[in-house]
Design goal:
Distance between the termini: 71 Å
GO molecular function: aldehyde dehydrogenase [NAD(P)+] activity
Protein name: NAD-dependent aldehyde dehydrogenase
Bound molecules: 1,4-dihydronicotinamide adenine dinucleotide, the ligand O=C(O)/C=C/C=C(\O)C(=O)O
Strand order of the largest sheet: 15-18-19-14-13-21-22
Family: Belongs to the aldehyde dehydrogenase family.
Keywords: NAD, Oxidoreductase
InterPro entries: Ald_DH/histidinol_DH (IPR016161), Ald_DH_C (IPR016163), Ald_DH_CS_CYS (IPR016160), Ald_DH_CS_GLU (IPR029510), Ald_DH_N (IPR016162), Aldehyde_DH_dom (IPR015590)
Number of helices: 15
Largest sheet: 7 strands, mixed
Strand content: 15-25%
CATH topology of the largest domain: Aldehyde Dehydrogenase, Chain A, domain 1
CATH class of the largest domain: Alpha Beta
Number of domains: 2
Length: 481
């Protein structure tokens, strides 16, 4: 059976303790590879490789760093089909999604930061009349840790690694133990692109063992993490007393605010996508749908009609719109929320049942699920489900919908559907979210700041924000005569 090995100092290697985890294919529930279960000693080895590589990499010219990153981007593009197939097999997502979203975005992440680093500049402040000049050096931090989740595996793994190495850091990175395959394949691509050994080190294993060892390592000075809010809280508790720089991209419970004056057909099509893309396993999915009461009934029936038409099935088939959920544990978590919704008085308008797909009976398939709820404070409307489940509620005024939209502990994204520019401005300012989309969803320009407020995280990724995170600002003050 294939082994997913660590990638340390430019070479693949087994974990020190020779212990392995099972890697499941969610589409058929079968174990299809073994994952290195690494611990402290593996992380220490990865750190040593990264530490040795740092003096050379941090002094490598911007042009050379950029050239290597561009080469990685090109190689990811060249390997689109094998990478997309690996991602789909590991995660359960439709192959079509991996081909058009996950892998192209992984390549764009490297291409974007290869170019961004050539434009990254620092400031100078002249103290006029005092004969003093201050300028800011933006220096790489050293060895940094990048920890990513299972929902968009290579997409989010590279979203952290690309800016980290573009800025001159060296990295110890850990993908999710649930979806490690494409991160494993990235090692070979980095070697082929000429990335010097030790610049990127990839450790596999569980969060509490390998992940915790990265966060606890006293010389890894910055941690960039994407994942669940509880895990983020735990990481912050470990890293904050060690004065590490932290970027935390956490959960969401994002509202969709649909006003009667919107472009209805466009809104309907995009709302189906923002609800169920990637089986609803994107932190940006709009899981709470609020609809102005004059169009609530018509929306309800049109939406359910469209959701019924979504084809759930074999991720490798072209007609599949929704594949399998990522794991049995996750499927059970999502199902427990569907059961809770019924206990709380919610009405299932469609879905809610596990599906058995011919030939893939042990896969983790779930119908897309639409629940009408009557109290915005019920648990299914407050807690992150992170699956193909959305709630519907009507509203009668801006004030009411804003109270409900902002009435959760999360604040990642919000989507507003309206043709009124004044309302757009008013509500965009009032929404408690790091990202507001108006008449669109998951429309990404990689230069923009990306992140959440409240329990959705700390810090911003994207563009120069990411390059600022992965560098330390040092002021140099020169007094001249
Ligand atoms: N981007 C997002 O918003 C995501 C949210 N989630 C949410 O989190 C819930 C739990 O999913 P999990 O797979 O358990 O996500 P998680 O947050 O535990 O995992 C994300 C990453 O963190 C690592 N990790 C876990 N514990 C760690 C620790 N103590 N120190 C360092 N790294 C650690 C994991 O190995 C993985 O690489 C999901 O049901 C979902 O609600 C999950 C994945 C992504
Ligand atoms: O950067 C993006 O485009 C999307 C990021 C998505 C997540 O962070 C997530 O789903 O966890």
């Amino acid at each position: 059976m294939q082994k997913i090995l660590n990638f340390i100092d430019g070479a693949y290697c087994e974990p020190e303790k020779n212990i392995w985890l099972d890697n499941y294919n969610p589409s058929n529930g079968e174990v299809y590879s073994k994952i290195a279960r690494s611990g402290k000693t593996d992380v220490a080895k990865a750190y040593e490789a990264a530490r040795s590589a740092f003096p050379i990499w941090s002094n490598t010219t911007i042009e050379d760093r950029s050239r290597i990153l561009l080469k990685i981007a090109t190689l990811i593009e060249k390997n689109l089909i094998p990478l997309a197939e690996a991602e789909s097999r590991d995660n359960g997502k439709p192959l079509s999604l991996a081909m058009t979203v996950d892998i192209p975005r992984a390549s764009s992440n490297f291409r974007f930061f290869a170019n961004a680093i050539t434009q990254f500049a620092s400031e100078a402040h002249e103290s006029i009349g005092l004969n003093t000049m201050n300028f800011t050096l933006r220096q790489p931090i050293g060895v940094v840790g990048c920890i990513s989740p299972w929902n968009l595996p290579l997409y989010l793994f590279t979203w952290k690694i690309a800016p980290a190495i573009a800025a001159g850091n060296t990295v110890v990175a850990k993908p999710s133990e649930v979806t490690p395959m494409t991160a494993y394949l990235l090692g070979e691509i980095c070697n082929e692109a000429g990335l010097p050994k030790g610049v990127l080190n990839i450790i596999h294993g569980t969060g509490p063992e390998a992940g915790q060892a990265i966060v606890e390592h006293k010389h890894i000075k910055a941690i960039s993490f994407t994942g669940g809010t509880k895990t983020g809280e735990h990481i912050a508790r470990t890293a904050a007393p060690m004065f590490k720089k932290l970027s935390l991209e956490l959960g969401g419970k994002n509202p969709n605010l649909i006003f009667a004056d919107c472009d209805y057909d466009k809104m309907l099509a995009v709302t189906v996508r923002s609800s169920f893309a990637n089986q609803g396993q994107i932190c940006l999915c709009g899981s709470r749908i609020f609809v102005e009461d004059s169009i609530y009934e018509i929306f309800k029936s049109d939406f359910v009609e469209k959701v019924k038409a979504l084809k759930v099935g074999d991720p490798f088939k072209t007609e599949t719109a929704m594949g399998a959920l990522v794991s049995k544990t996750h499927l059970e978590k999502v199902q427990s929320y569907i059961a809770l919704a019924q206990k709380e008085g919610g009405k299932i308008l469609f879905g809610g049942k596990q599906l058995k797909i011919d030939g893939l009976e042990k896969g983790y398939y779930l119908e897309p699920t639409v629940i009408e709820v009557f109290d915005d404070q019920c648990r299914v409307n407050q807690e992150e489900i992170f699956g193909p489940v959305v709630t519907l509620m009507p509203f009668s005024s801006e004030a009411e919908v804003m109270r409900m939209a902002n009435g959760v502990p999360y604040g990642l994204s919000a989507t507003l559907w309206t043709s009124d520019i004044n309302r757009t401005m008013r509500l965009s300012k009032q929404l408690e979210a790091g990202i507001v989309w108006v008449n669109t969803w998951l429309n990404r320009d990689l230069r923009t700041p990306f992140g959440g407020v409240k329990n959705s995280g700390v810090g911003r990724e994207g563009g120069f924000e990411a390059l600022r995170f992965f560098t330390e600002a040092k002021n140099v003050c020169i007094k001249y005569e």
